[in-house]
Design brief:
Elements lengths: L3 E9 L2 E6 L3 E6 L12 E3 L5 E4 L3 H12 L3 H18 L7 H17 L9 H7 L1 H18 L5 H16 L3 H22 L8 H19 L7 H10 L1 H18 L6 H16 L1
């Protein structure tokens, strides 16, 4: 039996917000689905080509504002992009992406039309850490060029990839940016203390990024790797420079994340730093 909802508001001919006693407010998308629809009208869930739920009232208001100020055809295209992302990532996306990425892309399209470009200082790190998201973002930029004839700068691929990663991990963009700033700070500290310059194109740089990324994630999740007292003593005696640098990095993480960092991270950082110095 088809599920029937009640129209709350037709945002345009192709987008309707409907009420459901279980899901609360549901956004229904489909060709002509909003034509002549009035508040209180019944509407079948099967009438929609696509649906999503915005449970946050503020996000519903933001989405309504977005639609009021955008060309309906552009909104339809941007909606298609988000469902394309969900298909490519093969997992559910946080509902927030319907507001955040739609807003970002519509503004980026206007910027590109006005030849205004933003640089992305973490482009290489984003590509390295979120390879699948970066590839999907690259394909989206190609789709925008094909559909609208607008060429985005390379940095835009990184911004879109961040939105995708945010949606699949349920983490805020600002938290991800803080994460990248912390990694950049730690890399700078490593280069200064070891008197080296790490080539961003080098496989060792990619491994370092992955290790620091996982270390920060473990701190957020309060994961402990395990106590290794004997290993600690050996590393401290054998690789004092790397061991002391690892402690500096851990203290930076503690300060920036405002969370305790388990001592075991020092050991794993020491091993990784020693491998890095050997290879360089």
């Amino acid at each position: 039996m088809e599920k029937v909802l009640t129209v709350e508001k037709a945002l345009n001919n192709n987008v309707v917000i409907a009420k459901d006693h279980v899901l609360d407010e549901v956004v229904l998308i489909g060709k002509g689905i909003g034509f002549n629809r009035k508040k209180g009208d019944p509407i079948g869930l099967n009438d929609a080509e696509k649906t999503f739920v915005l449970s946050d009232k503020k996000e519903i208001e933001q989405y309504q504002t977005l639609i009021r100020h955008q060309d309906p055809e552009l909104m339809e295209f941007l909606n298609d992009i988000i469902f394309y992302i969900e298909s490519r990532m093969d997992q559910p996306l946080n509902e927030h992406i319907h507001v955040a990425l739609t807003d970002h892309l519509s503004f980026a399209i206007k910027r590109a039309g006005g030849n205004i470009q933003f640089s992305n200082p973490f482009l290489f790190e984003i590509e390295s850490l979120y390879a699948k998201e970066f590839q999907v973002a690259h394909d989206i930029v190609d789709k925008i060029d094909e559909k609208l004839g607008i060429k985005f700068p390379e940095g835009e691929i990184g911004f879109i990839a961040l939105h995708i990663h945010s949606a699949i991990t349920d983490r805020q963009i600002r938290d991800l940016n803080k994460h990248h700033e912390l990694i950049a700070l730690m890399v700078e500290l490593i280069e200064d203390n070891l008197s080296v310059t790490i080539n961003k194109g080098d496989v060792n740089y990619n491994r370092l990024l992955q290790h620091l990324h996982r270390a920060i994630d473990r701190v957020h999740q309060a994961n402990i790797l395990g106590k290794e007292q004997n290993l600690k003593n050996v590393l401290k005696m054998t690789y004092p420079t790397c061991y002391n640098l690892a402690w500096k990095l851990v203290k930076v993480m503690q300060k920036q994340l405002n969370k305790p960092v388990d001592e075991s991270e020092v050991l794993y950082l020491t091993i990784h730093l020693q491998r890095l110095t050997n290879k360089m």
